Amino acid sequence: QVQLVESGGGLVQPGGSLRLSCRASGSFFSRATLAWHRQSPGKQREFVAQIFKSGATDYADSVKGRCTISRDNAKSTVYLQMNSLKPEDTAVYYCSSNFPRDSWGPGTHVTVSS
Fold it and tell me: At 28, is the pLDDT very low, low, confident or very high (cuts 50, 70, 90)?
């Protein structure tokens, strides 16, 4: 059974930074593509970033240059470093894995406000 648990969300001022973490259970981690998505109130869930098992990364245009996704296979953890945060980054952030099956964490709240 795959379990993903996000942490690191909170309240931050515009221009600030946060690092989100997502720890996974199970032995699948190194073989999975891991991703971060987010959902703002009244909006559909949207893609933020993903990291392939090779270490290659991909970002949404809205966060490119401000966010960095990384993974530590030894710790079964994927990270999302977010800098220069804007109020429009306010959302619930979810991590996901595509292996051994599509799985999602419960999410962590990020609020960017002065």
Answer: confident
